[in-house]
Amino acid sequence: MDLGEALQKGFYASLGATAALLEFWQDPIAREQSLQSWQQDLDQLVEKGVSAEMEARNFVDRMVARQTGAPTSRAEEPVPTTVDTTAQPAEEGTGGVPQDDAQALSDLTQQLSDLRAELERLRQR
């Protein structure tokens, strides 16, 4: 995308946002419905974020535990710790990532992609 297209797109986006804002403030019923919808969308994003954070923490805990030999269970309140790690050479033919960790990483990547798409959809409203 060149600079002219970006500026034009930005102009149209701001014009559309202004028109949507005017419509939003002029119609109290639509405004209330929009606010309720946004609240529901925000609640869903928060739930997804909490879930993604927990999965990411578990994934990192498993990776650290695999490197240090520590147990993978998590205490009720997380305790900040410093972990010294050293790089291990990747195994030939496996990419260096065990299958369950590769699946967890793939799941997290998909969740991140879903969250980005959801945010983009909310921005376009």
Summarize the structure.
By secondary structure, the protein is mostly helical. The chain has helices at 3-26, 28-68, 99-123.
What is the radius of gyration?
22 Å
Helical fraction equals over 70%
Instruction: Specify the overall morphology.
Output: elongated
Q: Give the class from helix and strand content and strand pairing.
A: mainly alpha
Order of H and E elements: HHH
Name the beta content range: under 5%
What does it look like?
With 125 residues, the protein is mostly helical. It has a domain at 28-70 and 97-123. Helix content is 72%, strand content 0%. The chain is built from three helices and no strands. It has helices at residues 3-26, 28-68, 99-123. Helix 1 packs across helix 2 and helix 2 packs antiparallel against helix 3. The chain is elongated, with a radius of gyration of 22 Å. The model has no long low-confidence stretch (mean pLDDT 78).
